[in-house]
Amino acid sequence: MKAKHIPIFCAYIGFLLAILALKEELSVWCEGICLMFFITIVNHLKWKTYPSNLFLNFLAIGLILFSFFLPHTDIFMLFLYVLFILILIKFLGPLKPRDLWQVYTLNLFLFSAATFSNFNLSFGFILILFFWFTLIGICFLTAQQVTEVAILQRPLFYFASGLSITAVLVAMLFFILLPRSPYTFFLGFGFSHKAKTGFTEDIDLNGIQEIRADTSVAFRAIMSCSLKSPPYWRGMVYDTYQNGRWQMRLKPQKIKPSCPDSNIYHQTIFLEPYAGKTLFALNYPFAINITAPRAFPIHPLSNLTFVLNWSIFQRIEYKASSCPVFPVAHLSAQEKLLYLQVPQNLKEPLRQLLQHLVDKKDPPSVIIKKVVNFLQKPPFKSQFQIPKTEGEPVLTFLFKTHKGWCEHFASALALLLRSAGIPARFVGGYYGGTWNNTGNYYLVRQKDAHAWVEYWSGKDWKTIDPILPTLEIKKTTYFPFFWKWLDYLRLRWYAYVINYDFAKQRRLFYRLKHYFSPSKNKHYWQVKKPDFEWQRYKWVFLSIVCLGWMVFIIYFLFKQHKANLFLSLCELLRNYDYNISPTQGGLEIADMINKKDPELSYMVRRFVEIWYPMRYGRLVKDKAKIKHLKELLKQIKSHLIKQKSILA
To answer: Which of 41, 230, 262, 392 has its CA 20 to 30 A from that of 143?
Structure first.
């Protein structure tokens, strides 16, 4: 690629990266923007046919006015439309240096807007690439104003790359050290994504089958080790069924339960945004403390449901403690009545079905076993894609189609148990997940959304899953080698970058204080150490990386200084008592020396007349000329030594 085309190429790459960063906001317009993008590239490289400035100005005004009537949700989207229109208009015209500066500025505005809505790890990489290409383009664009960039192409590339890396390191330092606010800005102003959710707080048996193919992430849960069996991630508990819908109508009181079992599961969960208010945790959670974006505890309801007062439109981090058994052994009369509720139109069909399944003398444990066996045998079959039918979904499932997903099986089981006089409730959440042993966490996707049943055994609540034997894909899976590291980086990105707040900053400084003063805090290192002391050696590793980068920068600058033969000449003359100013040119130095030593002035002038055209002009740099200049430097040095010995 020719050096004069590099600023244009970098401007296009910066705009393309902006499209990638904002592809979700501009999903409808992405194809049109990309088409215009490639048309303008071909125009600059081949056709070189540009409209008049007057036409472009009127086109920009017309498109901006038209964008006011496009279907956008908020002023943020309108701002994005205007920026994209202005950049595309610039690409339609000839890209002079002034136009390129404007394109670089508009690209920077686009990425500034993207930082309000895009928090993924991929955006971090895209942002670093954007700064790299932009700095390369700016360096070449600036050099074009003063010299022929072809002779400086490689040094400019190295300089821009080093400047980009240095800027990233300095930005990281500022990010870590600058005080953090305990409050979250821009929340609720349309600057955050809403993830498609596989979990809904209003279960509708006729409208949720499309989520089964959704592979997007629901949450990640860090634990000490994986479980022997696939875990249940508890979400919302439902009590009322009517016309194919489950809802939580009863408003249980907030309680503070404790786990009666000594085995407590501790989890750190990073929940993706979704249009709900429910938090998820393993098995039977009894305590949840939100740590980011700001720290506060939240108390469970009596059915062990944790619900916020607002929808979760941003990633949140919280710590959960769960019990393997239900920690609340109490069922009030009001709750018992609610958990025996069966719609009037279902009572008779379910009663007749139970007469064929169980005997009146059967105890509750036998009734539960017979009903579950009935649902787990043919003709019942788990199937995600089923046609929509008219009428009551549970009756259609039990007596006609015999096909459905977990919500159908759980609904049928809960209502059959209620008809048999056993209190039961419908629980929605997630089941299974992918275990990543690199970071010791489960990755749970939206397609892992699941429903099961809890029944009252007389002493406590028990979990039962009628569809479990047929869940061939709902099991704990493991990451391939490469993808587990990539997803681990995503987890750490959310933990240490997106959710980096004042509390984490304070803990970081506290650990650094203990690390650099271990003698005063000997007990700090007396805790149980892992097999490999990564917590200690990671700082050594990071220090080595930073030190290596500093050595590389110093070596690069020294090499560039040494490669500049004119600077070597100035330094040589200074060593022999010639007052050389940094602002003096080569010919000025030769004229100044001429009064004292005409022979030395002649050699300096010969050196400068070769060096200047090669360094700043169009003279091609080759090894023969470099060798000749070095020979002149040796002659000048020999002359200076000779003159000094004569004067001595």
So the answer is: 41
